[in-house]
Design brief:
Layout (H helix, E strand, L loop, with lengths): L7 E3 L4 E2 L2 H10 L4 H17 L4 E3 H15 L2 H16 L4 E5 L6 H12 L4 E3 H11 L29 H27 L3 E4 L9 H6 L3 E7 L3 H9 L6 H6 L1 H17 L4 E3 L6 H18 L2
Parallel strand pairs: 1-3, 4-6, 4-7, 5-6, 7-8
Antiparallel strand pairs: 1-2
Helix pairs in contact: 1-2, 3-4, 4-12, 6-7
Length: about 300
Amino acid sequence: MVVEPTIFIKGTINRLFSRGFLAKKLELIGFSISEGYQFSNHIYSDLLRLEKNKLSKSYFDKFVYNHLKSKYNENIAEKYILIENWYDTGIPLWILITGAKGVGKSTLSRQIASDLGIQHIIETDVVRDVLRKILSSEVTPELHASTYNAYKKLRPIYSSRLDEVIIGFENHAKFVNMGVDAVLSRAEIESVSIVVEGEHLLPAFFDEIIRKKTNVIFITLALSDSAQHLENLNSQYTQEKEDLIKHFEEIRKVHDHIVNETKIRKLPIVELESSQKPLQQVRKLIVDKIVSIVSTK
């Protein structure tokens, strides 16, 4: 059995060079996984040819940068090096991803966290469940319903001129966002990157954080095709599935409300129709944020 030569990279964290790991990083700047792996093979071969079995992280980054610049262009090479610089700075990145039930938040959020090596992924449903243990249904009846039918728990003080579904949704979400705010406060103390995803995240609740903190990116996922949205809900394997289908009209109201609130604040919206390649769009938004963070540091 032939054992391949290893290449040792010395940095803040010492590690062996991995072609798969480099290919994964290159996905962030637009490479397909196969193209990234092919390029990584090229890097590996050239380092061995130059007998570079042990090298510093700075040398390795410059080596990859020069190859990217030569084979592709300076813009791609610059993005790579800026992302690597971000890792070295230790500046945390907070990624907040919202959207109605069934649009595909969880799958995309896990992929983004994996791309960036972010270990902390918080679902707002988990925050909600914790709060339900603390706050009784007598005190917060809307919290103990779902976002799409919380309006059924509304007290009769609300004006009938307003859409009850949206009032119920916002009353439900405001409690969850208090919990999310606590999570972010903890992330700030510990200086860790985090992905928070869930339908409870409304831009209005995070205006101040988004305005004041340059390391925060708020992304709304939208699915304009209501038939596709319904199909997504139909394909879910949860006990809630039948209730979701039954309340699809309310869920679409929540969907449109989240999207409209995002548009008002001119924050990023990513359309989740398959032809639009949403993962690539989200990756680009995040890379642009990282480039901004490092460039202004």
